[in-house]
Amino acid sequence: MVELFGIPPQALFGQLLLGLINGSFYALLSLGLAVIFGLLNIINFAHGAQYMMGAFVAWMMLTYFGVNYWWALLLVPLAVGATGIVLERLMISRLYHLDHLYGLLLTFGLALVIQGLFRNYYGVSGLPYSIPAELSGGTNLGFMFLPTYRGWVVVASLAVCLGTWFAIERTQLGAYLRAATENPSLVGAFGINVPRMITLTYGFGVALAALAGVLAAPIYSVNPNMGADLIIVVFAVVVIGGMGSILGAILTGFGLGIVEGLVKVFYPEASAVAVFVIMALVLLVKPAGLFGRVA
Amino acid sequence: MSDAAATAAETAPGDIQLSVRDLNGWYGESHVLHGVSFDVRPGEVVTLLGRNGAGKTSTLRAIMGLLPRREGSISFEGRELLGLPPRQIARAGIAFCPEERGIFSTLSVDENLMLPPIVRPGGLGREEVLDIFPNLKERLSSQGTKLSGGEQQMLAIARILRTGAKFLLLDEPTEGLAPVIVQQIGRTLAMLKARGFTIVLVEQNFRFAASVADRHYVVEQGRVIDMIPNADLTANTAKLHAYLGV
């Protein structure tokens, strides 16, 4: 086969696909963070732990109750989202009148507690979750081999991201959300129940993290630290995209996944820091992020 | 008839839509309302006049439940509003147009217009509202805050007409606007009055207030200190000038 810039196409496309997969998770997770930050003004540090919970609850449902992958895709976000709703009502809602820092500290502490609990019961070696039969195998595209499940993850993530973007930017409910993000007291004075909207928004953001966890379970091993490893990069993605920007979170998530993949091909040593170098450069030029609105 | 309380006593109780009694209000430690009392009858246009910082805007915000701490009584159609959150006050049939207009920059003009939910039947339809404010019709897909100041003010009024609330709190709708737009807003208020809306208007523009209102309450240092019917305005010009310092 012809080499591109001295790189065999197999390697190039293989890394591009890997980048796209990573980007799918970056996008889903940073989208949830952006939605939560937009309305609650809280940086949800528990997001990685909630993603991990998604993978674990899927594994538990399968192992203990025989709930298959497809049902898990639906039930796990609902279950983990419900824990988010309880969390918001019982704890996070008490911090809205305080500095943002308190929300960050609370959710960071929660993340450590949740990860500690799972580590205590399940260890750190990782649990297997097999790819559902319908999505196993792959296709030879000629220039590369595409495992079906990985293709599915990219498509599913894109669909959920676009669906969320549509719901927020193009529907009446989304208009309430955007308006409440901008001026919650005036939206309340129109007769809209803003506290309930905040609770449901947090639940939705958490459900997105859990969904990403279910999607990740068959690819990465189900491991109490899986979220902590990922979330730092996701925070960088959110900062690059612009805090609270929905489209920014999605585009930056996929974009940075791909960039990371490309760096792995051309200069593997830098792949781990590429995202953070980009973050530093973006912050120098556009402090509000690529898609952020200047406050 | 210079005492607001005396006026209230002359009016039959059933004839009063909003009754504010001895309303005190605070922003944090700062005590801004010191016993505001006044009444509004159905279908009236009433203004709150006074100098800057007298407590006019705070009074409106207190009625809407937007003041963090309130004491006293705000009775609307026989129902006590004190202690209710703003969303329930809105659902009771009171609509608020804030001084800063509150147009949302992340929403299009159309989304801004359609944002406030319907709280009771009988509001104006979307087309009806756009016929009253034809300028908005051509700008529906624009970003809300890309409108001119006058258009934003119209949008802020237009969106609350859809809700079915017939009791409007308007905070300085003419502030900073060109005379031709002030006239258009004046005509709109007259039309709303003719349709049976009740309006409480905070106004600095005394001439505008005189052109639209039935009665004027004078607010000073967090209290209502006088009430002047619009018909007696000329006779009371000197007194009013002293109050307002104009």
How would you concisely characterize the structure shown here?
The complex is a heterodimer of chains A (295) and B (246). Helix content of chain A is 72%, strand content 2%.
Greatest contact pair? Answer: A-B, 18 and 26 residues
* Whole-angstrom Rg of chain B: 17 Å
In whole angstroms, the N-to-C terminal distance of chain A is: 51 Å
Radius of gyration of chain A: 19 Å
Q: Can you list the strand order of the major beta sheet of chain B?
A: 6-7-8-3-9-10
Helix/strand/pairing class of chain B, anyone?
A: alpha/beta
* Overall pLDDT metric of chain B: 91
Ends distance of chain B: 23 Å
What is the total tally of β strands of chain B? 10
User: Helical region count of chain A?
Assistant: 11
Structural account:
The complex is a heterodimer of chains A (295) and B (246). Chain A has 295 residues and is mostly helical. Chain A has a domain at 28-221. The model of chain A has no long low-confidence stretch (mean pLDDT 91). In chain A, a hairpin with a 4-residue loop joins strand 1 (138-140) and strand 2 (145-147). Chain A has helices spanning 9-40, 47-65, 69-90, 100-122, 148-170, 172-182, 184-189, 194-216, 226-241, 246-266, 271-285; strands spanning 138-140, 145-147. Chain A has eleven helices and two strands. The longest helix of chain A is centred in the N-terminal third of the chain and has 32 residues, at 9-40. Chain A is globular. Chain B has 246 residues and is of the alpha/beta class. Chain B has two domains: 4-93 and 166-244, Rossmann fold (3-Layer(aba) Sandwich), CATH 3.40.50; 104-163, no CATH class. Chain B has ten helices and ten strands. A six-stranded mixed β-sheet of chain B has the order 6-7-8-3-9-10, sandwiched between helices. In chain B, strands 2-1-4-5 form a four-stranded antiparallel β-sheet, sandwiched between helices.
